[in-house]
Design a protein that fits this description.
It contains eight helices and eight strands; from the N terminus they run αβαβαβαβαβαβαβαβ. It has 251 residues and is of the alpha/beta class. It folds into two domains: 84 residues, Ribonuclease Inhibitor (Leucine-rich repeat, LRR (right-handed beta-alpha superhelix)), CATH 3.80.10.10; 141 residues, Leucine-rich repeat, LRR (right-handed beta-alpha superhelix), CATH 3.80.10. An eight-stranded parallel sheet has the order 1-2-3-4-5-6-7-8, with no helix packed on it. Strand 3, helix 4 and strand 4 form a beta-alpha-beta unit. The radius of gyration is 18 Å and the shape is elongated.
């Protein structure tokens, strides 16, 4: 559809009051198209599910769409995976999340958030008390970024599902996330997907400890299973964990 298609859809959404789910993935929407779509996102309060995955949004679009997300009062699920949000643009996009009090599902997988984007996510998780599902699969987030997200998890009470697979967060990053859950007795996390990494003793111990604290938590990761405990509270091992939420973009 390109820019002209985005312009046409935006004009329609400014007036339409019946559409609640809109799938616009794979349309080569770029930063210019984002300007038109942002107008609709800001003004339309009827659309609850919006899929903008597999497009060509870059950092400028992150700034534009982030502002729109902050002002939207109807959107409950946003899929914006497989785009080109990096560092600054990712941070701007996520900044809107901290102000949004309606969005429950956010899929930003397969972008390039890096540690800057992860830091913004961590801050957003501290402020946001509505989001329930977050997918940051394959976003070049390293140990530093994982610890930023962990800082947000330490304070967040509402997030239920978090997918961090295919990020180079190593055992140190995984441990940081688990320690954050340990420190947050009011955490809402029900499903946590961590990357496939070798499991050392510290990580294995933390897995056991977290499972004791939260016996209903589904914790999924791959790696060396020999160091797993043979206790009653076994951690489910999954070499290819499912994407959190109901995204169609898992590969």
């Amino acid at each position: 559809l390109g820019v002209e298609g985005a312009k046409a859809f935006s004009a329609m959404l400014l007036e339409n009051t019946t559409i609640v789910s809109l799938q616009l993935s794979g349309n080569e929407f770029d930063d210019q198209a984002a300007k038109y779509l942002a107008d609709a996102i800001t003004a339309n309060s009827k659309v609850e599910i919006l899929d903008l995955s597999y497009n060509m949004f870059g950092d400028k679009a992150g700034e534009i769409l982030g502002t729109a997300i902050a002002e939207n009062i109807g959107l409950k699920e946003l899929k914006i995976s497989w785009n080109h949000f990096h560092s600054q643009g990712a941070a701007a996009l996520v900044k809107g999340l901290g102000s949004n009090i309606f969005l429950k599902v956010l899929d930003v997988s397969y972008n390039g958030f890096g540690n800057s984007g992860a830091a913004a996510l961590g801050e957003a998780l501290k402020a946001n008390n509505v989001l329930e599902e977050l997918n940051v699969r394959n976003n070049r987030i390293s140990v530093e970024g994982a610890l930023h997200i962990a800082a947000g998890l330490k304070e967040n009470k509402t997030l239920k599902r978090l997918n961090m697979t295919r990020n180079p967060i190593q055992s140190e990053g995984c441990c940081g996330v688990l320690k954050a859950l340990q420190a947050n007795s009011g955490t809402g996390i029900e499903i946590l997907d961590l990357p496939d990494i070798p499991v050392n003793k510290e990580l294995a111990d933390l897995c056991d400890a977290v499972k004791i604290l939260f016996p209903n938590l589904l914790l999924r990761h791959g790696g060396n299973t020999k160091l797993q405990r043979k206790s009653q509270l076994k951690v489910e091992l999954c070499s290819q964990p499912k994407v959190a939420g109901n995204s169609q973009n898992a590969v």
